[in-house]
Amino acid sequence: MGKYLLLAAMLLMPCLLNGQGQVYTRKAKLEDFSTRTTKIVLTGLPMFDIILKEEVSSRWRISPYEFCSVSEYERFKNRSLYYFMRFAKDDDFMYLIVSKGGLENGEDPMKLAFDVIKMPIAAADNPSGQELIYMSAFIDIVQDFLVRAIESDRVAYGGLKSISRKRSTRGKLIYLGEERSTKAFEVAEEDALCGVLLQPADTGRQTYCYKMLIGADDHMLYYWRKQRIFSSNDRNWTATDKINFKGKIFKEKQ
Questions:
Q1: What is the dihedral sign for C-alpha 11, 16, 18, 21?
Q2: 141 and 179 part of one domain
Q3: Do residue 127 and residue 229 come from a single domain?
Q4: 3-class SS at 85?
Q5: 238: how many CB neighbours lie within 10 A of its CB?
Q6: pLDDT at 212 > cutoff 80
Q7: Rounded to the nearest 10 degrees, how much is the dihedral formed by the CA atoms of 124, 130, 131, 137?
Q8: Residues 173 and 219 in one domain
Q9: pTM here?
Q10: Tell me, what's the pLDDT at 16?
Q11: Are 126 and 145 part of one and the same domain?
């Protein structure tokens, strides 16, 4: 309940200040997105960049865009005229990030940099190759989020989970095994959902894994869960996940 009250307070704050200064929500900060150039930052890895260029060129439709190098990103990242789509890693995951360019500090909130969306796409130290197979879907999911975030502060603050809640898994065929999910995705199987499970390296410390169901035919996000790992069982699809699914789960051969 507390988080909903906090969100409501954030949305109402501009109306409550009454002359104490303008407050800009994320939705307000994103209003210029469709008119600004999004710079797609290439990684310098030939195969990765070939696929990235191909998918962006055929799919990106929500803003002007151009490709740039990492060095160009470093040169332009402080300019609020641009948005950036780039890849970054932490100790556990590789992420696809869309950020707004700007300063790290300053009095004008409209000129400050911030991450709009940060989507995990692979384990940091042991990527499986799924990040390349599903690149088209990751780009479409990010676009879907951005379109909705521009229209709604609830989505802008709620992240990827907020858009997955808008879709039902009812009537869908759900594949949880990596091999079968990949096959369904590659042929764009109608009404099929592909399970994507991202696990960090097992270092012995408590961390998180990410679980997604992605539409094989429409590339939309139907299920999203960030799960704390307390035991090895948490690294797989759990009974809790399956209870949330309303579709038919394909049984993998043992």
A1: negative
A2: no
A3: no
A4: strand
A5: 14
A6: yes
A7: -140
A8: yes
A9: 0.87
A10: 38
A11: yes
Q: How crowded is residue 59: how many other Cβ atoms within 10 Å of its Cβ?
A: 15
Q: How many domains does the chain have?
A: 2
Q: Tell the burial category of 12 from Cβ atoms under 10 Å away from its Cβ (0-12, 13-18, 19+).
A: exposed
Examine the pLDDT at 98 and tell me if it is beyond 60. yes
The answer to whether 132 and 51 are in contact (CB under 8 A) is: yes
The whole-angstrom distance between residue 241's C-alpha and the CA centroid of its chain comes to 19
CB 163 within 8 A of CB 145: yes
pLDDT class of 23 with cuts at 50, 70, 90: low
Name the residue range of residue 32's domain: 24-159
Alpha helices in 79-118 (DSSP H): none
Bridge pairing between strands 192-198 and 207-215? antiparallel
More confident residue, 202 or 61: 61
Q: What pLDDT sits at residue 15? A: 43
| pLDDT computed for residue 11 by the predictor | 47
Structure tokens at 43: 């990684």
Sequence-separated (6 or more) residues with CB below 8 Å from residue 158: none
* Same-domain check for residues 136 and 193: no
Q: CA 51 to CA 40: how far, in whole Å? A: 13
Q: How remote is the C-alpha of 147 from its chain's centroid?
A: 13
- Angle between the 46-59 and 135-151 helix axes, to the nearest 10 degrees? 50
The DSSP element (H or E) to which 123 belongs, if any, is strand 114-123
Q: Are residues 113 and 152 in the same domain?
A: yes
Determine the length of the chain: 254
| Residue 155 forms part of a structural domain | yes
Strand 93-100 vs strand 65-68: parallel, antiparallel, or unpaired?
Answer: unpaired
Distance CA 234, CA 209 (A): 8
